[in-house]
Amino acid sequence: MGVRAGKARRWGTVDAVIARFAAAARGRVPRLCPCCGHEGLFTAFGDPPRYDARCPRCGSLERHRLIRLWMDRERPFGPSHRVLHVAPEPQLGPAIRALVARYETADISPRRAPDHLLDICDTGLPDGQYDRIVCNHVLEHVDDIRALAEMFRLLAPGGLVLLTTPIIEGWATTYENSAITAPEERRLHFGQADHLRIYGRDLRDRIRQAGFRLSEFPAMEPDVHRHGLIRGETLFLARKPDPSSEEAA
């Protein structure tokens, strides 16, 4: 009798935990999506799940909403700009396209029918073709040194790359190991089966060493709780210097 009662209590606890998780996965607190205007509950997303991560209307995640907030405040896209969107997200693409002279997409996969089917490490595109490059959650999948150098080459002087990537600010250096190639091992070490590294604070050094000047837009309150952002997640803004404007100054 005692054993059966103990099992009943244990399973009752498990059921309660599952029920609480299921309820939270459907949304905890109403949020506002700056990408589509939805105001209400967001849903969990990710592995492991992040609560209130995904907008149920447009599918935006925290990084998309962070970028859209920055876009709305800083107005970085203008009617003369030429934009390359790498691994393009539908949560951002249409809004950018409406603001610029030329909007092009690029991906290594044909799944979304990009304008350019290419490897961002070696695009084959001409020098100085773009004023803005959008590159979210790509660097952790590729040879980042080559990718940064290629984006620097593709930018016109004064051009800007918008970068987001997973980073652990408590780590001084990036963790990577080229001997780890099996998907499950990569998941264990880097958090996802197709990731090659987890960045530390030295990501900034890698960006600067490619020739960029760097500024940052971090997720802070009250934006975090209002829009469902990850506390401290950072949009890295890498600008290619423009010698002509510096000489004029």
TrEMBL record:
Pfam families per the UniProt record, alphabetical: Methyltransf_23
Keyword set, alphabetical order: Methyltransferase, Transferase
GO molecular function terms attached to this record: methyltransferase activity
InterPro entries in the record: SAM-dependent_MTases_sf
Gene3D superfamilies: Vaccinia Virus protein VP39
GO terms (BP aspect): methylation
SUPFAM superfamilies: S-adenosyl-L-methionine-dependent methyltransferases (SSF53335)
Name under which the protein is recorded: Methyltransferase domain protein
Organism from which the protein derives: Rubellimicrobium thermophilum DSM 16684
